[in-house]
Design a protein that fits this description.
34% of the residues lie in helices and 22% in strands. It has two domains: 37 residues; 117 residues, no CATH class. By secondary structure, the chain is α+β, with helices and mostly antiparallel strands.
């Protein structure tokens, strides 16, 4: 008659161990998913144009939309802008395209969106578009603001040259 009472504590211990294991797994999954959220840039910064791309270094490079290349007067992957190489384009759901630039192991992005959509407005305006910059990577990279601004100005100059004759590309 002692056998049933011995099984009861073992069964309880197994149930408790299973519940503990599920709790630990749930915590790890939650911690993993919340650690991938990027911090929001401060209001008033050039980075406030749109959220950063989901990955730290973005998706694999892909050719940009031909209409966007036309608006940017031929700017595409491999083009140099103020000593920085264009390595990728990131269209977003917020009608903004980020152009990722690289020099060595350092990156930053220039954002292009329809005029009037940035909150606050980015520092550079064309007739129909606004251009911002930011998202230096790695996070501790020091890129002078004047250098990022000069690259963004060159992108804006390309837009000004073509914006009256090129229809708005999809995604902008």
């Amino acid at each position: 008659m002692t056998a049933p009472s011995e099984k009861s504590p073992r069964l309880f211990a197994r149930i408790a161990a299973a519940a503990l294991l599920l709790g630990v797994l749930g915590f790890l999954v939650t911690a993993q998913s919340s650690s991938s959220n990027a911090p929001t840039p401060p209001a008033g910064s050039a980075e406030a144009l749109v959220p950063a791309p989901p990955d730290a270094f973005g998706p694999a490079p892909a050719p940009p939309d031909p209409a966007l290349v036309a608006l940017l007067d031929g700017l595409t992957v491999g083009t140099e802008v103020n000593g920085w190489k264009v390595v990728n384009f990131y269209p977003t759901n917020e009608s903004v395209v980020w152009v990722e630039l690289q020099r060595g192991e350092i990156f930053f992005s220039v954002g292009i969106g329809p005029k009037g959509t940035g909150k606050p407005p980015p520092p550079i305006q064309t007739e129909s578009y606004e251009v911002g910059y930011g998202m230096p990577r790695p996070r501790d990279a020091v890129i002078p603001t004047q250098e990022m601004m000069a690259a963004a100005e060159q992108v804006a100059a390309r837009i000004r040259k073509r914006e009256k004759e090129v229809p708005r590309p999809k995604g902008l």
